[in-house]
Amino acid sequence: MPVPSAVFRSGVQHILTRWVLPNPGSREFEKAASFHDLQDMQSGCMAYVIPPPPQPSVAVQGSDARFPVRRVFCVGRNYAAHAREMGRDPDREPPFFFTKPADAVVDSGVTVPYPPETGNLQYEIELVVAIGTGGANIPPANVYDHIWGASVGIDLTRRDLQMAARELGRPWDWGKAFDMSAPVAPLVPLQDVPSLEKGRIWLAVNGEMKQEADLADMIWPVRDHISILSRSMALCPGDLVMTGTPAGVGSVVAGDILTGAVDGLPEITTPIGTRAS
Ligand code: MN
Asked: Is 70 found in the same domain as 31?
């Protein structure tokens, strides 16, 4: 790993602000076959000016070890009835994606404060798929070779901010990617997951059923949408994919308790707390 000697001469602070890729055109740069190799070269340098942030992670069913989260990809409008309730024609759209930050992930049981700057916080129950083996341009037939496990999660959404952004042609981030916006139940290793292709998925608010559908209702099944996603981004170990929500989304208020599951996978429980200050 090349470290310019000038960096060492100039002292620690300078090291940390200039850090450190090989010069484009250098032999080292050419040897770094991909973006991810370059990232590995960066992370080989072990000094930071502030403590590095904690590694976001998800619990694993039946294990003390946790699954480290790298990125969270989300599929938009992947169930026809939900696409219709959002005012779109499900027959005419290829799958599209948005993201949440890895540290938006919280465990089941954690109270999520009602988030700021919204009057319309909504739930979206979703099958969550965890990537254990990276890859790009993955054919649909090979997608399961890249999956570590699965769980259920809630794509919490500030619907008013999302819709305002949609109207203005702006990004969805402020509606989707806020703090604690991705509660995820404990992951189950793939060999213990009954199916990623069929099975009831549901969500209740205070015990009243609000969303109830079947994974078989997905417009783009897991094999297909992860294959398509992998054409745009090289998937990496630690990536999560939230696979879209069925119809029945709706608003919650402080004090509500969300529960949900995919049959055969652990239930999620997410209480909504008072508004974050
Ligand atoms: Mn969603």
From this structure: no
pLDDT tens, 78-107? 998 888 888 888 776 789 999 999 999 999
Distance 157 CA to ligand 1 centre (A): 8
Distance 251 CA to ligand 1 centre (A): 14
Those residues with Cβ within 8 angstroms of residue 169's Cβ, 6 or more apart along the chain or in another chain:
none
Q: What is the pLDDT of residues 194-253, one digit of tens each?
A: 999 999 999 999 999 999 999 999 999 999 999 999 999 999 999 999 999 999 999 999
| Interval between CA 229 and ligand 1 midpoint (Å) | 15
- Please tell me the distance between residue 75's alpha carbon and the centre of ligand 1 in angstroms: 6
Domain hosting 256: range is 57-273
Number of structural domains found in the chain:
2
pTM score of the predicted model: 0.84
Statement to judge: residues 121 and 226 lie in one domain: yes
